[in-house]
Amino acid sequence: MSTNTDLSLSSYDEGQGSKFIRKAKETPFVPIGMAGFAAIVAYGLYKLKSRGNTKMSVHLIHMRVAAQGFVVGAMTLGMGYSMYKEFWAKPKP
Predict the structure, then answer these.
(1) Structure pTM?
(2) Where are the domains of the chain?
(3) Cα–Cα–Cα angle for 49, 38, 23, nearest 5°?
(4) Where would I find the H helices in 1-93?
(5) How much is the pLDDT for 17?
(6) What are phi and psi of 28, to 5 degrees?
(7) Mainly localized where (predicted)?
(8) What is the pLDDT of residue 24?
């Protein structure tokens, strides 16, 4: 079994904060999706006590659909942004 000493260990040297910042610069819509998901969940938990006659299961399903919809929307915008950067904004050779 041979070991590869040419491996770069730079990815192991960076901390969690710097890794998150680097990844956020590469794909900016992922943190937006995460923040939106957290905001919708927090709002749903806040509104949980004043839901009125709505059943708990219906309230939770609505909150889940809203949070998932926000994340899917952020992912779609991120893919569109990536495709734009790669195919249209790239200078022609």
Answers:
(1) 0.63
(2) 1-52, 53-92
(3) 175
(4) 10-13, 16-26, 29-46, 56-83
(5) 81
(6) -70, -20
(7) mitochondrion
(8) 81
Residue 39, classed as helix, strand or coil, is helix
What is the length of the chain?
A: 93
Chain Cα centroid distance, residue 62: 20
Nearest to 78 by CA among 70, 22, 16: 70
**Two tokens, residue 75:** 């992912």
Q: What is the pLDDT of residue 88?
A: 83
The structure tokens 């938990």 sit at 45
Which amino acid is located at 83 in the chain? M
For residues 33 and 74, is the Cβ–Cβ distance under 8 A? yes
Match 């790669």 to its residue by tokens. Answer: 86
Show pLDDT as tens, one digit a residue, over the chain (93 residues). 555 544 455 556 778 788 888 888 888 888 888 888 899 989 988 888 888 888 989 988 998 999 899 989 988 998 888 888 888 876 666
